[in-house]
Amino acid sequence: MLLAGEGWRKTFDSMQQEAWRLETLPVYRVPQEEEAIRRFLAGEPVSRDATRPWSDRVKAYAAGGRRVGRVHIVTQPLTDYLRFEFEYYRHTIEAGEAVRIFDVTERPNPLAGVRDFWMFDRSRIVLMHYERAGTQIGREVYEGAPEPFQEYQRIALAESVPFEEYVTSLAADLRCPGQSGGEIQ
Q: Is the pTM of this model over 0.85?
């Protein structure tokens, strides 16, 4: 079954405990982000307003005792998109999302070949389909057993580090192109 629009929103809203995401791509092409990315590349920090719709949802889930988390698999050097997304993560983490980074630059990737997915309550899986360039082309409810995805989550969590720990070691590399020195905005 393919998910879109209201069905996709209901999938999130019906979770009882947790929504968890594995992200594997270095670039996601999302039309709604194009202007924010352009501004980021011009040296402007990512604003809270740009992240508000998702941050507000995460905050509401957290207020109801539900968790949202993700692990993003990356390699260095980080793409411009990942540098942008990392700034986006700062706001969603403040809202309550647990973001971790799994850097496979200098080690084998035990999740090579695993595609992006969301897992809801460790039982419902939604496969995320993308073109090679990172444009989403669909979401599909997975009809099989959830155990392989539970194992992917276990590996991703065990091999990753919390976002803040990761970016602390890369602070100079993550600045907006127009920024010089100091903290990431």
A: yes
